[in-house]
Amino acid sequence: MREVDARVNAVLLQESCMSRLAQIPVVLIPIHFDRDPANMMATSSILRSVVLRPFITSDFMTGLPAKPGADLPLEVVDKMVKAASEVAGISRVLYDMTSKPPATTEWE
């Protein structure tokens, strides 16, 4: 997960987009997409998915997700997803679009 976090943050820095965000938590979840249904019960998976949560706020009491194509250029979002997907053990990259409220600024 640290490698995914480092790669995503590197893309944002390289593309001069880091200042648009208050934070971008990267969350590892134990979900392996695209598994062969025939083998699901036979072996356990070592692959996981990650969730990117680019978040915009001025006070951390309320906030909005960074919308692809509006708050972050689509090319930057694509580069973040590609960089995260290239890390060994990652099955899928998800993008959290939940505002606060109802969600928290981090991920629960």
Automatic annotation (TrEMBL):
<dbReference type="Pfam" id="PF00958">
    <property type="entry name" value="GMP_synt_C"/>
</dbReference>
<protein>
    <recommendedName>
        <fullName>GMP synthase C-terminal domain-containing protein</fullName>
    </recommendedName>
</protein>
<dbReference type="InterPro" id="IPR001674">
    <property type="entry name" value="GMP_synth_C"/>
</dbReference>
<dbReference type="GO" id="GO:0005524">
    <property type="term" value="F:ATP binding"/>
</dbReference>
<feature type="domain" description="GMP synthase C-terminal">
    <location>
        <begin position="48"/>
        <end position="107"/>
    </location>
</feature>
<dbReference type="GO" id="GO:0003922">
    <property type="term" value="F:GMP synthase (glutamine-hydrolyzing) activity"/>
</dbReference>
